[in-house]
Amino acid sequence: MDIETAGPNPGQYSLLTIGACTILGRNSTFYIEIKPVNMNALPDALAISHLSMERLAERGVEPGEAMKRFEKWLKDETPDGGRPLFVAFNAPFDWMFVNDYFHRYLGRNPFGHAALDIKSYYMGLTGVSWGETSMTQVGQRYLGRQELTHHALRDAMDQAEMFRKMLESRPTLPG
Predict the structure, then answer these.
(1) In this structure, is residue 27 part of a structural domain?
(2) Nearest partner of 118 among 145, 87, 84, 152, judged by Cα
(3) Does a structural domain hold residue 49?
(4) Range of 7's domain?
């Protein structure tokens, strides 16, 4: 999954878009643009995402409704008795916004209290240092390119492709 935001933390800045997709099994996607909770924004954040606070204020989905729709999509895509797994490239950043918004607007987080970080997984899989887990290195290895688009759905799909390839490259352990 991937998000775009207006700044570095959910206490001062808004979650602007959510993009998510399934990693294994059926191919399914989710994308939503969210109305900002305030107009605080860092110019660099908006320059990267090419999002407009004014446009989202007019046309974005109210945050509570956006989180209800995301939760419904997660329930629809999660096998009975299962829990969705939050997987993201640099999961700590995305997690803090998604967790905050789920709790702030719905009082619960369908992901529970866990997230899987693709950068950390890559580090463990390959034995590289943390400094070698940037999108430059990982994207080049698994996607043949170095950058994400900063469109939440496209980036979520690219991250899912990278993670699938990582899973396929795992060594088989004896026994």
Answers:
(1) yes
(2) 87
(3) yes
(4) 2-168
pLDDT in single tens digits along all 175 residues of the chain: 999 999 999 999 999 999 999 998 889 999 999 999 999 999 999 999 999 999 999 999 999 999 999 999 999 999 998 999 999 999 999 999 999 999 999 999 999 999 999 999 999 999 999 999 999 899 999 998 767 789 999 999 999 999 999 999 988 766 6
What pTM value is reported for the model?
Answer: 0.94
Only one residue has tokens 């570095």, namely 8
Known catalytic residues?
Answer: 150
Residue 174 lies in a domain: no
Q: How many domains does the chain have?
A: 1
Q: What is the CATH number of the domain that holds 14?
A: 3.30.420.10
CA distance readout (Å), 161 to 39, 82, 110, 113, 123: 34, 22, 23, 24, 17
